[in-house]
Amino acid sequence: MSDTETTERVATTDKAAPYHGSFIWYELMTSDEDAAIAFYTKVVGWTASDADQPDMRYTILSAGGRGVGGIMQLTDEMSEGGARPGWLGYIGAADTDAKAKEIEAAGGRVLMEPGDIPNVGRFAMVADPGGAAFYLLTPLSQGEEPKPLDPETPGKFSWHELYSSLGDKAAFDFYADQFGWETVTEMDMGPMGIYRIFGQDGVQLGGMMNKPENIPVSTWGFYTNVDGIDAAVERVTANGGQVPMGPHEVPGGSWIVQCVDPQGANFALLSQTR
User: Fold this and answer.
1) Which of 31, 121, 144, 270 is in Cβ range 3.0-4.6 Å of 223 for a Cys bridge?
2) Does domain 157-271 match CATH 3.30.1780.10?
3) Is residue 223 classed as helix, strand or coil in its secondary structure?
4) Distances in Å between the alpha carbon of 145 and those of 3, 14, 141, 142, 172?
């Protein structure tokens, strides 16, 4: 198949896949799976269930009666290779193998070659040109998409924030080329630079900004809905977590807080009320 035919095939498939370019799953890799499950079910209110995957333990986190993410234990091999507790997001791809090649050709890296997740789909771990890691996922099910959760559902991942060594513009250009994301608006944050709010098909997904000095590497951060930010902060600290930043109000009237779980993974919470 020629390069032109491949490009046309992928472009056609992309348009036909409603999940392409959307964050469709979130995963915590942690040094203590049981402790992490206990922490997040108390703090966020997720329900936890075993995924019944062969040869590994994987815990599904659900909100509003639907799975939204998962937790898995870091293996000794992962830890020896430098992996640390943290959250990663999965972006839907119509063709994981083709998209991984496109990302590499655009200056990104393939951190884990495409492979199959039994009964789930085909995935790969990649990094953008600034080094921020994420997964690609082509789900097995190609049927009708379920009705989206209400945007304010407690436990729903509702905002995605990229801190990039590339700066907001170069980082955005990469994701716009790969997934068709759009700039919704730009906010001038003074010495911190521009905060670029991005979206897809008119729906806001998150923001991108230049990586602050206190963040060692480019990374994605994810905000999860809670009902009342002050009560959530109390649950974080009462269960061994830390709150290095916030709570503070953001444009639009929502409240956010930046947190660290007991195993050292960063996460963030968002609420419409204080």
Assistant:
1) 270
2) no
3) strand
4) 31, 15, 9, 8, 27
